[in-house]
Specification:
The chain has 75 residues and is mostly helical. It has one domain: Methane Monooxygenase Hydroxylase, Chain G, domain 1 (Up-down Bundle). It is built from three helices and no strands. α1 packs antiparallel against α2 and α2 runs antiparallel to α3. The mean pLDDT is 92.
Length: 75
């Protein structure tokens, strides 16, 4: 355990951020593994954009995922 007050605060912050990032990762994985239809594509795109905004995935990966999603829906 940290001894300094500021170190303890940083520990709390990092745990909170880790929990938020973990939840966002799980939401993204669930969205990508779910059924892909025209109706669900909006929800999947939203999950991808949120993950990219939070820095969980890079912008290029988000663009690649959305491109592949649109290709799958067109088929």
């Amino acid at each position: 355990m940290p001894h300094l007050k500021s170190a303890y605060k940083n520990l709390r912050k990092s745990r909170r951020k880790a929990a938020i990032n973990s939840k966002a990762k799980n939401n993204l994985k669930k969205a990508l593994k779910g059924p892909l239809t025209l109706k669900t594509s909006a929800a999947v795109t939203k999950a991808i954009d949120k993950a990219a905004k939070r820095g969980i995935i890079s912008d290029n990966k988000a663009a690649r995922l959305k491109s592949n999603l649109s290709k799958k829906i067109k088929k």
